[in-house]
Amino acid sequence: MVGGYAIWMGQSVILRVIAGNLRVPLRGRLVSETTDVVRLRIADSWDVDIFKSMVLAVEHDNPVYVLN
To answer: Which end of the chain has fewer CB atoms at under 10 Å, N or C?
Structure first.
């Protein structure tokens, strides 16, 4: 079954998440999806499950490089 997040799998993203009165950007890589949850890999060995109902937006994470 292909979900709405299938195009984002394996890509570096920023999830805009709402929790109560807080709106938080979470940076990581989407690794899986179920009917209710997306799994975000924040560090090499740290995966976090986030309810889809908490996700406001998904954006590409474009790293910025500063050259001196």
So the answer is: C
Q: What is the pTM of this model?
A: 0.81
Parent domain of 49: 6-60
Tally the domains of the chain: 1
User: Could you tell me the two tokens for 16?
Assistant: 């805009």
HEC sequence for 49-65: EEEHHHEEEEEECCCCC
Which residues on neighbouring strands pair with residue 66, listed in sequence order?
none
The pLDDT tens digits of the residues spanning 4-25 come to 899 999 999 999 999 899 999 9
**14-32 b/e (C-beta count within 10 Å ≥ 16 → b):** ebebeeeeeeeeeebbbee
